[in-house]
Amino acid sequence: MKSILYLLLTIFFIPFIVLTGCSERKTDNAAKAYKFWTGTHPPTDVKVIAGSFWESAHWSKEYIVYLELQTTKQWRKKFVSDNKLKKSNGGENIPSDAPKWFKPGRNCIAWKSPDDDQGSVYYIDSLTGKMFIYEIQL
Questions:
Q1: 60 to each of 5, 24, 47, 137, how far by Cα in Å?
Q2: What is the pLDDT of residue 90?
Q3: What is the DSSP string of 88-100?
Q4: Are 71 and 46 within 8 A, CB to CB?
Q5: Residue 15: which pLDDT band, with cuts at 50, 70 and 90?
Q6: The pTM is what?
């Protein structure tokens, strides 16, 4: 009797987990994109201007995020330090699927993580305080 109960539970439980636990997340809402990316609301020294976020339904946390932020100098310095970013030697190309608003200006300096081999780039314009973030994890 117990084996039949376990079998029935398995038959119904596994498909339920598979079907409800794996769903794609996608948004072009700037605030939601930031929250999906960080797991938190933006702090007071960050204004989210535009954003786009996609996360696969796969269990391995595959995502692509584009953000345009207005930040303070202190926040940018901490972001660069916390993420161990290094100034890029150049050669970055904006991905062909980037949103139309994702246009880092001429004054932007591109930063990359030495640990990233997928193409994430963080553009910082120290004159305007804007950041353009393209982060990919596949």
A1: 32, 12, 29, 10
A2: 84
A3: --S-----TT--T
A4: yes
A5: low
A6: 0.82
